[in-house]
Amino acid sequence: MVTVYLVRHAQSVMNTRRFLVGGRSNHTPLTQWGRQQATLCGQALRTQGIQPQVLYVSPAVRTQQTAQLLLAGLGVDMPMHTDDRLQELSQGSWTGRPRVLVYNPVTLAAIAAQGLDFAAPGGESMRQVGARMYAWLLAAQAQAAQQGHSSIMAVTHGIAIKSLLGYIADWPHAKIYTTEVANVSLTQLECRGPARRDIRVVAVGKAMI
């Protein structure tokens, strides 16, 4: 069995600008509070005896910074493996635009009608994100088995984590959307095989600080 820990990044500058569509925004760094959150999360993981044997990270600045500070809090020096499949859902041409302009009645009706398959212009749907996150999970699980590892961690993003859970457990769009996965929260999976039925969701969005 492989235990997989998914950590959402700490508070970023874009998280404080709720009036804008964030999407990937891979350039946005952590806030000062976010840096503290990441360190505290690492310390909490150490206190709880959680220490991954392999660490994967999204290429976004905020996840890279979170991972570095988390490792410092854990008191561990280990390589970070960057994987593009861990990126946040792309909002395409909507990224950085005011939410009030984007989420108009026409858009909201399209989201309601298309659900998991809705995507912003040039962006991704939740179903697509869930599929690529699942592809990462299968690859990471297989590599862990080959190397004899039983515990891996990924520092990634909120919608990415929820889309993966939805893909595994066949959640509807509404459940993915409303499930809370806060900054530096921990989601835990137990993987006993490559099939979705072999993956058990142990914890979702567990607060660490």
Using the 3D structure, state the CATH architecture. Answer: 3-Layer(aba) Sandwich
- Give the class from helix and strand content and strand pairing: alpha/beta
SS elements, strand count: 6
CATH fold assignment:
Rossmann fold
Sheet of most strands: 6 strands, mixed
Mean pLDDT figure: 98
Uncertain residue ranges: none
How many domains would you count in the coordinates? 1
Quaternary structure type: single chain
Trace the largest sheet across and list its strands: 3-2-4-1-5-6
Helix content: 40-55%
The fraction of residues assigned to DSSP E strands is 15-25%
What is the CATH first-level class name?
A: Alpha Beta
How far apart lie the N and C ends?
Answer: 27 Å
Produce a short descriptive summary.
The chain is α/β, with parallel strands linked by helices. The protein is globular, with a radius of gyration of 17 Å. The protein has helices at 32-47, 61-74, 99-102, 105-114, 126-147, 158-169, 173-178; strands spanning 2-8, 54-57, 80-82, 151-156, 186-191, 199-206.
